[in-house]
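Protocol step 4 of 5: obtain the predicted structure for the target chain.
Materials: sequence only (see below). No template structures provided, no constraints applied. The aim of this step is simply to have a reference model before the mutagenesis design in step 5. Sequence pasted as it appears in the construct record:
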Amino acid sequence: MAKVLLGLCPIGKFVFSHSDAIKHKKLIQQKLTGMGVDYVDLDGLLPERDGLVCDQGDVDAVVAYFKEKGVDAIFMPHCNFGTEGAVGMIARKMGLPALLWGPRDEAPDPVDGSRLRDTLCGLLASTKVVRKLVGNKFTYIENCRIDDPVFADSLDTFLRAAAVVKAARNMRIGYIGSRIDFFWTTITNESELLERFGIEVLPLDIAIFIENTLKRYNDNRERYSRELDALKESWLDCGNVSDTDELLKGLAAKDEMLHLVKKHRLSAVTMQSFFSIGNAIGCGTSLYTMLAGEEVLIADESDVHGAISSILIEAAKSDPGRVFFPEYVIRHPENPNAVLMWHVGAPASLRHPSCGKVTIMPPWILPGTEPVQAQFRLKDGDLSICRFDGDTGGYVLGVGEARTIEGPYTRDFYAWIEVNDWPRWERQLMEGPYIHHCSAAYGHCTDALIEAAKYLDLPVEIYGQ
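Step 4 output (structure tokens):
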């Protein structure tokens, strides 16, 4: 998950116990600290109110303070009731993911029947006002105790959703080369992506990329030879490659790609996977995308929407493993709910333990077009899958979950996956605005993607439902 700075904006109201509100504010601070959440609060801004927003007159100062601090999301816990006008105006003026919650109320005093707070009631008022001002662009955690598992789980989902929104609003995608003529599926509307979502696509000249790669190779051949020797010692088997220079140029291409990412502050890269680069430098994309993919997000075959998908799922995931970019190719020969995910390159850190070293071999498909391709089975585990896509002016975020299973051996990198209802997935993929590509990450993170989508005005389709 990308780093998120949370603006903690505790809400109180004069009609209930101020001391009890302070107590719960401190419990919330302790909880956030214990969970490792990076946050700023209002203790220094509103000392006369003990760091609680209790009046609509606090709104402008709170908004200015949070903007100065650069928060990415706001959390407005209702500590005794709710100042609903302030809650709604802060949510609208910040324009960020907003989380509402309050601690579950204790029983009334057994002697006089009084209550220290009516948190549930206050939240009902505040959510009504927030809906008036920002629509459904807020997140709510059920009225529970702070140590109930649902609180920590829901807060984690919200923070990952906020990370997705942050990533979505700061996308810059490097586009190396141009779309291959016969890839009509990856035709995209760059102007529309910029106007509707603020997504910038930066064209990068493929001729300059090739020229700089060859210069790196010529200037650093000995260093690349040492790097290749280290890879072979660790995890790379190059026994099937007759020309080692192809691999050394692949290392140079990796460095050139990483240089471009840093220079242009790119969120991801998409590229013309073949034929120009392979023909010009003698190296297929498999090696250098496999290596660069350990550090940057790469979508093959000029797939801008694929790069967007990878950025979103990278921000949503909690598993430390890398995002990878496969495609659906064939159904399992026996399992009706399983399918093969496959392509020509994924980060080597995702290989199955049984693979040992990653083998580099000539391709079996389009022989002669890609001098080298990596061969390995992906590791086992649960997977989250997403695809941002659209056509005819409409966009959607498709999400689903799967798990790897056993299946027949095949070439290049691959995994057989099982889903809840593949025939339904298949129909949704065929009839929706999707293609064969998707972005995948280990672990479960579709919850954060679904939650983030409402902040991005993106309809969501859950595969299999």
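Step 4 remarks: The first helix runs from residue 18 to 34. The radius of gyration is 26 Å.
Proceed to step 5.
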